[in-house]
């Protein structure tokens, strides 16, 4: 293809994707793919500046406003940001700035999270919110004032603190409207229940919610806003971006203050961008990058802007967690509990730095609701440590050869007829001797949180089963060197190491042992509660359902499952055989006499004097328990900076709220 046609084709394609993203809130490609198209066009246009027209997407921002909202002209254009993806891009940015300023002295920057939502401008006149608009094409946006006014954290009037500067008569504030991850999950769940298509991500959910014609619908969607800059203002005495953010906060506007970090060198900028990328999953909202800004406002003015973005700021994009790829095949995996899970095999893609080849499709119901087919082009995502999943199919790209998928009626591993419990979506293989279940149980038994037998991987387990050297977990403890060296790809040295690891695993804790048994619904956390409560395995085995339910943290479903497990004689016999191999179970030491012993704690927000892991360590060492969200059983909420929705829940439920100092006082400041 010649360069002219390629440029035109790319422009056309990007325009189409802009429309899907900005106007329909329903994108067809991942952000990463969009960024690649955009970069390709930028490169080509740089090589052929004569082909750049004012209509090219590289020269414009966003999309024309939808006709259903009235229009608002921005007094100052709302720009976009240039993107950077590497350390070198950041260093080049610093070099460009110094060159432009004609000065080699260090420039102070701020680095802050790039919130993944939609840009909004709020206009305050004499302290009152008069108009709110979306960015639109940068010059004209949609009037969303009525919808914005339903967002509780956006002040209708600015406040003036004693001794602080009053807000200027005219203040245009810019920021990002977004939806918390938890609210997004709930909203999508409700939509799927009501047979509505789920939103691909929190940003589309936020955009779709804000751009509702009926503000009553917006009011029901939990939106929030962080302010990150200003447009036109009357006189304002302030020298830096950092100071400006403090002022906005003093006037009652919400600012992501604890994460606006000052940096003096490009290396510091890179380090803080990395830090934000590392902690990105700890935020209660989605961040897709960091925004780097020149801190001094006078320098910002001197640097000015290019056609669509300012020279004084740049986005640093994190490694994408969503990507577009193709499903080459769908098959079914059988887990240790017999659950059949449909798995999509993908054309390999990189997600947050890891090559992904497979993604879960959860179950038939999900496949049907999302209408995902073999051969589909799809959006996949991987958030933190969770298993990659298929988010949605890109239906306009179908060619007609895509195939619907139906779960098999027989277990693909052992051929047993599968069954499904009334009211459940999961299909299971009922055969406890199914090789997939047996392999899965061994895998679980030796895993890190369970008996932690290093070096006993899937392939060795499969061979040991096949050679009938192991049938149940207890058999692992009678394996010999001779047994092991008969296996494929195992040398004497690794066989010896493996035997030692198996032997070492005999000294373990009661909690690990309970977890290793693989009782359904008994994860590591529940196993620890049970170990602490019962102190030995026999007492746990004799507990009645009532006794179990009475324990804090154990619900009826878990209690029933534990009971069923111990009522089964083969299970009891198996435990006996395991103990006979010489497994020694260390019971948890009685909790120290501390005011926190036996109490449940939740942490929200960012702690300043210690890491979250340190706070958890202090709490558990003192006999307290950690939970991830506030519920009726929570005793204390530890609130740091930028607390999440747990704070509101804690207030509603009357849970005691402590700050970091109070937490440490509770334990007599026992940090080491
Ligand atoms: S500053 C001239 N700061 O990212 C634009 N933008 O890709 C100055 N965004 O349009 C923007 N978080 O909607 C800035 N902390 C932050 C941001 C942020 C999210 C969005 C914003 C902007 C887009 C650019």
Descriptive terms for the model:
24 strands, 24 helices, Helix Hairpins, 5-stranded mixed β-sheet, 672 residues, OB fold (Dihydrolipoamide Acetyltransferase, E2P), 20% strand, 5 domains
Task: Please characterize this protein's 3D structure.
The protein has 672 residues and is of the alpha+beta class. The chain folds into five domains: 3-59, Helix Hairpins; 71-317, D-amino Acid Aminotransferase, Chain A, domain 1 (2-Layer Sandwich), CATH 3.30.470.30; 322-427, Beta Barrel (OB fold (Dihydrolipoamide Acetyltransferase, E2P)), CATH 2.40.50.140; 435-586, 5' to 3' exonuclease, C-terminal subdomain (DNA polymerase, domain 1), CATH 1.10.150; 600-666, Rossmann fold (3-Layer(aba) Sandwich), CATH 3.40.50. It is built from 24 helices and 24 strands. Strands 12, 13, 14, 15, 16, 17 and 18 form a seven-stranded antiparallel β-sheet that branches. It is globular and about 80 Å long. It starts with a helix and ends in a 6-residue tail after the last helix. The model has no long low-confidence stretch (mean pLDDT 90). Residues 79-81, 112, 114-115, 119, 176, 228-229, 291, 310, 313, 315 line the site of 2-(butylsulfanyl)adenosine. The site of 2-(butylsulfanyl)adenosine (IVH) has 14 residues, from strand 3, strand 8 and strand 11.
């Amino acid at each position: 293809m010649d360069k002219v046609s390629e440029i035109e084709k790319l422009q056309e394609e990007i325009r189409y994707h802009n429309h899907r993203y900005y106007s329909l809130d329903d994108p067809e490609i991942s952000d990463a793919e969009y960024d690649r198209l955009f970069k390709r066009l930028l490169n080509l246009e740089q090589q052929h500046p004569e082909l750049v027209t004012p209509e090219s997407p590289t020269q414009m921002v966003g999309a024309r406003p939808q006709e259903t909202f009235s229009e608002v002209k921005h007094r100052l254009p709302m720009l976009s940001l240039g993107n950077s993806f590497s350390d070198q891009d950041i260093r080049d940015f610093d070099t460009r700035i110094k060159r432009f300023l004609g000065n080699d002295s260090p420039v102070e920057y701020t680095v802050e999270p790039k919130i993944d939502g939609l840009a909004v401008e709020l206009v305050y006149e004499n302290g009152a919110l008069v108009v709110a608009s979306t960015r639109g094409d940068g010059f004209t946006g949609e009037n969303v004032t009525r919808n914005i006014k339903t967002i509780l954290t956006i002040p209708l009037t600015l406040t003036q603190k004693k001794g602080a500067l009053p807000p200027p008569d005219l203040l245009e504030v810019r920021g990002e409207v977004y939806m918390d991850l938890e609210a997004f999950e709930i909203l999508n769940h409700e939509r799927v229940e009501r047979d509505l298509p789920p939103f691909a991500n929190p940003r589309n959910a936020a955009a779709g919610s804000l751009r509702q014609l009926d503000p009553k619908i917006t009011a029901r969607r939990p939106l929030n806003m962080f302010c990150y800059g200003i447009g036109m203002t009357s006189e304002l005495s302030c020298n830096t971006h950092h100071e400006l953010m403090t002022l906005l906060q003093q006037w009652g506007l919400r600012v992501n203050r604890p994460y606006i970090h000052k940096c003096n060198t490009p290396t510091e900028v890179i380090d803080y961008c990395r830090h934000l990328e590392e902690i990105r999953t700890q935020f209660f909202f989605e961040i897709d990058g960091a925004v780097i800004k020149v801190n001094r406002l006078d320098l910002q003015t001197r640097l000015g802007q290019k056609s669509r973005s300012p020279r004084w700021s740049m986005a640093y994009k994190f490694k994408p967690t969503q990507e577009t790829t193709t499903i080459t095949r769908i098959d079914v995996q059988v887990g240790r509990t017999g659950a059949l899970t449909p798995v999509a095999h993908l054309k390999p893609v990189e997600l947050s730095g890891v090559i992904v080849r497979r993604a879960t499709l959860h179950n038939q119901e999900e496949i049907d609701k999302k209408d995902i087919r073999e051969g589909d082009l799809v959006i996949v995502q991987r958030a933190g440590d969770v298993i990659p999943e298929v988010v949605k199919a890109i239906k306009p790209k179908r060619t007609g050869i895509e195939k619907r998928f139906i779960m098999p009626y027989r277990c693909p591993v052992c051929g047993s007829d599968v069954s499904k419990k009334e009211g459940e979506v999961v299909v299971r293989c009922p055969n406890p001797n199914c090789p997939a279940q047996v392999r899965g149980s061994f895998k679980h038994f030796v895993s890190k949180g369970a008996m932690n037998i290093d070096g006993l991987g899937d392939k060795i387990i499969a061979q040991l089963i096949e050679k009938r050297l192991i049938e149940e977990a207890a058999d692992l403890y009678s394996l010999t060197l001779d047994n092991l060296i008969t296996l494929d790809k195992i040398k004497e040295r690794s066989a010896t190491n493996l035997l030692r690891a198996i032997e070492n695993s005999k000294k373990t804790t009661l909690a690990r042992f309970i977890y290793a048994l693989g009782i359904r619904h008994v994860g590591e956390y529940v196993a620890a509660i049970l170990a602490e409560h019962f102190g030995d395995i026999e007492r746990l085995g004799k507990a009645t359902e009532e006794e179990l339910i009475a324990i804090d943290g154990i619900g009826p479903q878990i209690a029933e499952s534990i009971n069923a497990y111990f009522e089964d004689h083969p299970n009891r016999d198996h435990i006996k055989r395991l103990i006979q191999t010489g497994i020694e179970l260390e019971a948890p030491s009685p909790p120290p006499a501390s005011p926190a012993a036996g109490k449940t704690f939740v942490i929200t927000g960012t702690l300043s004097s210690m890491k979250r892991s340190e706070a958890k360590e202090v709490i558990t060492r003192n006999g307290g328990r950690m939970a991830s969200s506030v519920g009726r059983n929570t005793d204390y909420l530890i609130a740091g900076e930028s607390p999440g929705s747990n704070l509101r829940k804690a207030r509603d439920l009357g849970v005691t709220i402590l700050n970091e100092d109070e937490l440490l006082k509770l334990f007599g400041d026992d940090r080491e």
